[in-house]
């Protein structure tokens, strides 16, 4: 199998050094690879189709745009994401072309696999592998068109991992803005899908005079949030680690959320009991009981620095074991019962010993997932389903009884905007209409082993494949600005929200979270509701009159 370049150079795809030569030749070879694939009817595009005619969603009170986040005269910016459309991004935020930008990306193949680990089963697969490697090359090449942009490709030590975190850190003269969200830097992600977003501004640390008049020191020690943020960002590579030095000037002690990071690698705890969970949050939840905090991505430690957090967490009442778990996400990995119930669900439901679907009550786990009809009638039509990856083989029978309908509250105006948000929560089932949450997480992590990790070696180590980042909303943390009084967490459409004073004058303060949950949650009807899978042909026309043909 030979590829002919424009200048007459010939590449032999069967040669051992074929991949190295393609990478050396760059754009010249890329054109030949694409031409060959097009000739043989193989799509060179992935699953993320960009819609041509976008429909702007209703701007609700709880909605923010990308230009809202990147407002004002920031001096430097760190962007991290999986996929980018740079011309669109810089058109939305022209300031990004004027200041130094660190751009961390996960551009490999669009299925979420690191290209270095695609099996070379045949020469055609070998050619596809090279094309996927060129995705990274193309991203780097696009960045070169902007002299102020420095691209960063974080290390991925474990096969099939990816960089999936979506965040930005913008430095201003007197503050830093940290935003963590669920959208790629793509137009349709921000305009036609339901996304989650958290952001907060942090001011400068107070300067205190030292004994030496010529010296000034920054008062106050580093907060948990700052340490977690710096540790996570430092794992992305040397350029980002240097950027982190700037963050030491800012006071993160007022952070009203806890970070939920995942970093690829094998992380060892101090013992079996302390490594019981495959989930970062497990130890944060156990903190309420034994005052241990999870150290970055899987390791556990006790530290004097944690005392302030522990005092807050001790104010929090651990949810009863019968409080159900909600899992809402936009990509379903290949799961087995042992991991889902014995590791994942057990970690979020401390006190339960769950090993299979037979011992997991139907009302203990709620998986919110769009149906075929939801996708067909969405703002993007069938194309929205290409961003909700789930092959038929992954929609396993044991999952069906836990499926719940995609029915966001009418107040959010998101029924026809398919979910790209990923959220997890525990709620009080005593009054489904109340919508009161024990805690909630908004994150880049889908329901997959790559994102949350798997236990190994008799539960003494945790293996994580991908970079992920989210935030956890906890009553004691949200109450930091109210003299430490824990807030009450409720969804925006809850009965509690209708009758509560959000300012919290004489009653317990209430925080409204605009999460896509309508209580009571609606169970799938096996006769009428079909969960979305993306590898089946759909002949019924969508709102644009199109059928669905899988890529």
From TrEMBL:
<dbReference type="GO" id="GO:0005634">
    <property type="term" value="C:nucleus"/>
</dbReference>
<dbReference type="GO" id="GO:0017005">
    <property type="term" value="F:3'-tyrosyl-DNA phosphodiesterase activity"/>
</dbReference>
<dbReference type="GO" id="GO:0003690">
    <property type="term" value="F:double-stranded DNA binding"/>
</dbReference>
<comment type="similarity">
    <text>Belongs to the tyrosyl-DNA phosphodiesterase family.</text>
</comment>
<dbReference type="InterPro" id="IPR010347">
    <property type="entry name" value="Tdp1"/>
</dbReference>
<dbReference type="GO" id="GO:0004527">
    <property type="term" value="F:exonuclease activity"/>
</dbReference>
<keyword id="KW-0378">Hydrolase</keyword>
<keyword id="KW-0269">Exonuclease</keyword>
<feature type="site" description="Interaction with DNA">
    <location>
        <position position="448"/>
    </location>
</feature>
<protein>
    <submittedName>
        <fullName>Tyrosyl-DNA phosphodiesterase 1</fullName>
    </submittedName>
</protein>
<dbReference type="Pfam" id="PF06087">
    <property type="entry name" value="Tyr-DNA_phospho"/>
</dbReference>
<feature type="active site" description="Proton donor/acceptor">
    <location>
        <position position="420"/>
    </location>
</feature>
<keyword id="KW-0540">Nuclease</keyword>
<feature type="binding site">
    <location>
        <position position="422"/>
    </location>
    <ligand>
        <name>substrate</name>
    </ligand>
</feature>
<keyword id="KW-0227">DNA damage</keyword>
<dbReference type="GO" id="GO:0003697">
    <property type="term" value="F:single-stranded DNA binding"/>
</dbReference>
<feature type="active site" description="Nucleophile">
    <location>
        <position position="164"/>
    </location>
</feature>
<keyword id="KW-0539">Nucleus</keyword>
<feature type="binding site">
    <location>
        <position position="166"/>
    </location>
    <ligand>
        <name>substrate</name>
    </ligand>
</feature>
<dbReference type="GO" id="GO:0006281">
    <property type="term" value="P:DNA repair"/>
</dbReference>
<keyword id="KW-0234">DNA repair</keyword>
């Amino acid at each position: 199998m030979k590829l002919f370049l424009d200048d007459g150079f010939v590449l032999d795809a069967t040669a051992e050094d074929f991949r190295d030569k393609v990478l050396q030749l760059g754009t010249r070879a890329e054109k030949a690879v694409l031409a060959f694939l097009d000739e043989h009817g193989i799509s060179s595009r992935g699953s993320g189709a960009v819609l041509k005619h976008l429909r702007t969603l209703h701007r609700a009170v709880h909605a923010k745009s990308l230009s809202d986040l990147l407002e004002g005269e920031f001096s430097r910016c760190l962007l991290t994401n999986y996929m980018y459309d740079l011309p669109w991004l810089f058109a939305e935020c022209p300031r990004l072309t004027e200041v130094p930008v660190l751009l961390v990306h996960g551009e490999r193949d669009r299925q979420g696999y690191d290209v270095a680990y695609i099996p070379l089963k045949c020469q055609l697969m070998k050619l596809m592998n090279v094309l996927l490697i060129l995705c990274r090359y193309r991203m780097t090449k696009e960045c070169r068109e902007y002299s102020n942009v420095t691209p960063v490709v974080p290390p991925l030590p474990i096969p099939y991992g990816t960089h999936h975190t979506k965040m930005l850190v913008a430095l201003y003269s007197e503050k830093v803005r940290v935003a963590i969200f669920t959208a790629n830097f793509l137009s349709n992600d921000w305009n036609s899908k339901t996304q989650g977003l958290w952001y907060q501004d942090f001011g400068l640390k107070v300067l205190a005079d030292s004994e030496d008049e010529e010296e000034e020191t920054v008062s106050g020690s580093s907060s948990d949030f700052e340490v977690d943020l710096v540790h996570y960002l430092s794992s992305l590579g040397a350029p980002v680690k240097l950027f982190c030095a700037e963050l030491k000037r800012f006071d993160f002690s007022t952070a009203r959320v806890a970070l939920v990071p995942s970093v690829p690698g094998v992380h060892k705890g101090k013992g079996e009991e302390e490594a019981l969970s495959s989930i970062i949050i497990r130890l944060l939840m156990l903190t309420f009981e034994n005052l241990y905090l999870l150290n970055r991505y899987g390791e556990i430690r006790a530290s004097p620095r944690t005392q302030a957090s522990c005092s807050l967490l001790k104010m929090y009442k651990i949810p009863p074991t019968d409080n159900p778990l909600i899992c809402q996400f936009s990509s379903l990995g290949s799961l087995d019962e042992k991991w889902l119930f014995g590791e994942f669900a057990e970690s979020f439901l401390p006190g339960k010993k769950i090993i299979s679907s037979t011992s997991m009550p139907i009302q203990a786990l709620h998986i919110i997932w769009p149906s075929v009809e939801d996708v067909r009638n969405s703002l993007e039509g069938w194309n929205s389903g290409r961003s909700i990856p789930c092959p038929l083989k992954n929609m396993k029978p044991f999952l069906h009884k836990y499926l719940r309908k995609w029915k966001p509250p009418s107040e959010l105006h998101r029924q026809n905007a398919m979910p790209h948000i990923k959220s997890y929560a525990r709620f009080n089932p005593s009054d489904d209409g109340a919508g009161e949450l024990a805690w909630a997480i908004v994150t880049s992590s889908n329901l997959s082993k790559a994102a949350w990790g798997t236990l190994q070696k008799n539960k003494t180590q945790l293996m994580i494949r991908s970079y992920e980042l989210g935030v956890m909303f906890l009553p004691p943390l949200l109450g930091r600005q109210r003299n430490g009084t824990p807030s009450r967490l409720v969804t925006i459409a809850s009965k509690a929200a209708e009758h509560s004073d959000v300012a919290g004058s004489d009653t317990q303060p209430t925080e409204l979270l605009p999460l896509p949950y309508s209580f009571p949650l609606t169970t799938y009807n096996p006769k009428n509701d079909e969960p979305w899978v993306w590898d089946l042909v759909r002949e019924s026309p969508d709102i644009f009159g199109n059928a669905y043909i899988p890529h």
